[in-house]
UniProtKB/TrEMBL annotation:
Source organism of this protein record: Prorocentrum cordatum
Location of the Band domain: 20-182
SMART domains documented for this protein: PHB
Segments of skewed composition (Acidic residues): 1-18
Region of interest: Disordered: 1-25
Highest taxon listed in the record's lineage: Eukaryota
UniProt protein name: Band 7 domain-containing protein
Classification via CDD domains: SPFH_like_u4 (cd03407)
Length: 304
């Protein structure tokens, strides 16, 4: 009796002329029985009757595993944008028990056959994609490989469990370039975001200053209005006299004049030098200039 591959085979006692062969097959293997080199049947797990043998020369065995096996296929190809990449495809296949005869006798090298099919599919799919598309469509490549292998390997008694693109690796220079591009994009985005934030701060600051100036102007206007009303009441209190706008303006200017002097004198670090002058004359001159400006501006507005 001959045993050509690994496996456990038990036979009965040898006889001089003829004996019946029994074989014990392990759970994870299938045995093909050959009688004078011709295939007769497949033995499943357990104790099996192999046939009659003469001096161990008639019956021989071939075996194959039923376990799921994995082949890692490496394919080098280029993308549509002329970038060379190394693609790793992991293929998991298993023998179909009903087609064990084909799996044992039709293929001389299962791994080499799978490598050929995978290389053909990968080299037809990846060149149609850019590098970024290849990374995004790894599942599409896996499906194409699985469909092709399922159709092709079924004829040889194998079923394809999975075909996965586990790695897609360009050259180191290309990887460095891609990282630099992503780095520059992120720096540009960060600069744009910083500029936008600065713009918002400037705009908000200007809006705040504008609102502050408006409120300050309204406050000053109300303050002066209150001062004028107070002066009118204090001057005309107990009399029937009515103040004209000219008199009110002079009172307001005199009041602001003395308030200014008060603020200058209250500041301990002030270096102001007082020059002899006449406040009344100065106020009259200022009020005269204001009146002349108002009178000159009135006719001009009417002509417009």
């Amino acid at each position: 009796m001959k045993q050509e591959e690994e496996g456990e085979v038990d036979a009965g006692e040898d006889e001089e002329e003829q004996q019946q062969q029994t074989a014990t097959a392990p759970q994870d293997r299938l045995f093909a029985v050959e009688f004078f080199g011709s295939f007769t049947k497949v033995l499943s797990a357990g104790l099996n009757f192999a046939g009659c043998d003469v001096c161990g020369c008639c019956v021989s065995f071939r075996s194959i595993t039923k376990r799921v096996e994995q082949n890692d296929v490496y394919v080098e190809t280029k993308t549509k944008d002329n970038v060379f990449v190394l693609v790793k495809v992991s293929v998991q296949q298993q023998v179909i028990p009903e087609q064990a005869e084909s799996a044992i006798y039709k293929l001389a090298n299962v791994s080499a056959q799978i490598d050929s099919y995978v290389s053909d599919v990968v080299r037809s799919q990846v060149p149609q994609m850019n590098l970024d598309d290849a990374f995004e469509n790894k599942d599409h490549i896996s499906q194409a490989v699985a469909q092709t292998l399922t159709r092709s390997m079924h004829e040889y008694g194998f079923q394809i469990i999975k075909a996965l693109v586990t790695e897609l690796k360009p050259s180191q220079d290309v990887m460095n370039s891609m990282n630099e591009i992503n780095k520059q994009k992120r720096l540009r985005d960060a600069a744009l975001m910083a500029a936008e934030a600065e713009k918002i701060r400037v705009v908000k600051k200007a809006e705040a200053e504008c609102e502050s100036a408006r409120l300050s102007g309204e406050g000053i206007a109300k303050q002066r209005e209150a001062i004028v009303e107070g002066l009118k009441r204090s001057v005309t209190s107990g009399s029937q006299e009515t103040l004209t706008s000219e008199k009110i303006s002079e009172l307001l200017l005199i009041t602001q004049y003395f308030e200014t002097l008060k603020e200058i004198g209250a500041n301990s670090k002030s270096n102001s030098v007082f020059i002899p002058h006449s406040p009344a004359a100065g106020v009259q001159e200022i009020s005269g200039q204001i009146r002349n400006g108002i009178l000159q501006g009135g006719p001009g507005q009417q002509r417009m």
